[in-house]
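Q: How would the structure tokens look for this protein?
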Amino acid sequence: VLDGPGQLLRRNALLLAALAPAPVLAQAEPVTPSSVVAASAPGEWVEIAPDELLVMELAPDADGAPREVVIQLLPPPFSQSWVGNIRTLARAHWWDGTSVYRVVDNWVAQWGAGEDEQGKAVPLTEGLNIVPESEYVVETLTQTDWCGDQACPKPDLTVGDRPINSPYAEKEGFNSGWPLAANDTTIWPTHCYASVGVARDLSPDTGTGAELYAAIGHAPRQLDRNIAVVGRVIEGIEHLATLKRGTGDAGVYETEAEHTSIISVRLASELPDAQGPRFEYLASDSENFNRYVAGRANRSDEFYIQPAGGVDICNVQVPIRRIAAD
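A: Here is the predicted structure in token form.
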């Protein structure tokens, strides 16, 4: 029995409170590769040296839009004889006026002087290295002390409780921002999407670096230790990956009109300060890089149902970003 309107109001208030939905507690945002990169500290990023950046300007596309491809060259100790040749050729402006002349679906886009085409070869710049096949790899010191102070992958790099592994190598990991593979005696750079390699003839030829290609399909890991990796496209890979596929032998274009002309190739260190691009990568020995790798292997954002628990090294794209102009 209610004894007045005041008690009725109090009872209604209690009833409404009981029926109200419980407050929703804010859920923590899932950790994703992107969120890890966004949370990284400025001190975890390493600027790429200007003489390790190769800037290739292609002819404008059909709509007149510019096309720039930026390649990061491998640092020591890997492929340095070929990288030295590439710097020599770039300083000589050797690629200016050559073209992208071969494009194979799920394989490569290749450029240079058209050595695969009769009568197209351009005389090489003097002073290039002749590189032996032994330089496809770098020898390690011991099983426990891989390369001293030189670049080596961490043999114990894991994602959760599982190592990065593949059928192509006993060990895989990252160092100085590069995906590397190794066994107990040697270490080598890997072929991943956008990797840049040196085209060559049959063994024992190893190529000079004048004819280069970028991988535009599934990672061609069977090429590891069989052909030189010298870098990777870090910006503008779409300008190569979307080119018309060649219909001639081995994907070489059959007509001159199909070629994509190269206006210039320059080292960033040769360009005026205002024009040279600057990039930095997330250091592979940083805490957030390891968190990033783990996040690539075990996606926890709401789109994913089942974490994979592992990851292919070529599916861990090293975070690289432009540095804004001052």
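The mean pLDDT is 85.

Residues 147 and 251 are 39 Å apart (CA to CA).

Upvote if useful.
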